Structures are given as structure tokens and as C-alpha cells.
Amino acid sequence: MENPKPTLPGNIPTLYAWMGGQPVLERLTEVFYRKVVRDELLSPVFAHISPEHARHVAHFIGEVFGGPARYTHDDGGSHARMVGHHVGKQLTEKQRRRWLDLLLESADEIGIAGDPEFRSALVGYLEWGSRLAVLNSLAPENPVPPGEPMPHWGWGETGGPYQAD
User: Fold this and answer.
1) All domains of the chain in start order, with CATH
2) What is the pLDDT of residues 49-87, one digit of tens each?
3) Within 10 A of 164 (CB to CB), how many other CB atoms are there?
4) Model confidence, pTM
């Protein structure tokens, strides 16, 4: 499946294209989840993840970053479904911070674009998403309606970083 939106208005590449597309995202999530399952603080949270978990997360981030809708179309996912995976997990700020640190460490390890603009967008998304995950983990039920659009994260002339469909 080709990326239907490789650039944004003004011929600005999507975050997905800039970072190297699906192969880079899949490598990132593979390296990251190998660390997570060995991490004392995070391994209990991820003790029962499926072998496909890293790929599903790569599909989700790819879609959010302007790539193909693989999470939605190939994995049968939605924004509500992703949020639902966090409900009831009772995640802590310490776990959130460790998750973020390991993901950024993994990005450095595999050589994901380190330029300031990309890194700022990446960190901004990870901060936003991980803080929402903690909030949603404390919710008694999924706070996202089933039809809620997939978030999109951008940069440059697109306005703010978060845009709903």
C-alpha cells in the first residue's frame, strides 16, 4: 500500500515520509518492545502483548504521522480501539516517563532523523500521546466515541501539530 499523502500543503513531507516510512517505524517498534519486555518498570504492563503488537503500533503511528491507514484498514483498528487498550491499566507517571525514554533511546539507536524540527514533532507527539494514555488508563470506560477520527500529527505550515480528520 503506497502512502496516499506523502506531502502536506506547501510540498512539506509528512512526518511518516521524513522518518523513512513503514520499514523505519517497524524497526523502531521492534527495538523498543524488546527493551520494554525486559524493563522492570514496564514489563508487567506489557506481559501479555501479542507477537504482532509492535507492528500494530507501527501501523498506528504511521497513520497518525500521515502514512497509509494500515492500522485502520489492515488491523481493523480505530482511535477508540487504541484508547481502549489503555483503559483500566492504571499507568503511572513514572511508567509513562520510562516508556518515553525507552522509545527515544530506541529512535537514537536506529538512527531516526535527529534534526531539530523532526525531533520536536516526534517528542511532541510522544508527550501528547503518552499523557493521554495515562489519563485514559485511569478512566472507568473508553472516553472516545467509536466514530472519533484518527488523530493526525504534522509540522511546518500545517498549523498546529494535532489535527482531527
Assistant:
1) 7-163 (1.10.490.10)
2) 898 999 999 999 999 999 999 988 887 778 777 877 788
3) 9
4) 0.86
